[in-house]
Amino acid sequence: MERCSRCHRLFLLVPLVLGLSVVPAWAGVPPVDVLRALRFPSLPDGVRRARGICPADVAYRVSRPAQLSAPTRQLFPGGFPKDFSLLTAVRTRPGLQAPLLTLYSAQGVQQLGLELGRPFRFLYEDQTGRPQPPAQPVFRGLSLADGKWHRVAVAVKGQSVTLIVDCKKRVTRPLPRSARPLLDTHGVIIFGARILDEEVFEGDIQELVIVPGVQAAYESCEQKELECEGAWREKPQKHRAQRSPKQQPSRLHRPQNQEPQQQVRELGEPQTTAHSREGRHPDTSPGNSPKCLRAPHPILGSCPPLH
């Protein structure tokens, strides 16, 4: 009888030991490079290379025909982290109000979204439907649709979300979600568009990364430099021509015999792009807008037109 009692106690301890040994599947995993997961480096339709924040950086220019989506589970096989950092470097068309990233559940519910423009919106809805639309975080007074490069870091932890823009302005808003929020990863993640929405992203993007935990968002400013963009774009051309090669930084130097129209551009482009090699440019007319996602999720079925 005493032996059975000991066995019973050991049996009760097994679930506790197993529970202590279980850690989130995403703990310690590397950052999720959303651009690479959505095949940006291979230049799908509607995407071409562009100059990034610094002349040596590579960015991607996205036009209206772009159809970029993937199963969420492909990016987050171990589940979406509860607390996370979202980092991006982006430049949009002036006056644009459009989504940058949208995450849908298997039932077609928008669970996560980042909307650029004026105002800046962060959309979040967990498995319980919280927070309700009136409590969704809105960052008024911030505009990222001004045709300039911006570094944006979003830190989501507990019941709040913090937005850091250009390492200068930091704003925190309440995020009244559940104590144990979950996001369904059996749906689809879409770049630059929403189902049943006509607004789509147009502009340049250099980085789009999601990292478990909020440390990456707060440390991102220590690893980034914005001065290179201002040194290249804001200084008058005549001052650059008068400076000697010794005074001019090597990575910002350009040959003096370059054509003026290639020296200063509001949206810089690389020397060679997929479209320039083919002698064509993407058609951005409304009539040629995408009518459906390239690879609709099997659970969502055929998606309705975006326009």
From TrEMBL:
Gene3D superfamilies: 2.60.120.200. Residues 1-27 form the signal peptide. It comes from the Eukaryota. Residues 232-307 are annotated as: Disordered. Residues 244-274 have a biased composition (Polar residues). Residues 82-213 form the Laminin G domain. Residues 31-214 form the Thrombospondin-like N-terminal domain. Pfam families: Laminin_G_2. Keywords: Repeat, Signal. InterPro entries: ConA-like_dom_sf (IPR013320), Laminin_G (IPR001791), TSPN-like_N (IPR048287). This is Collagen type XI alpha 2 chain.
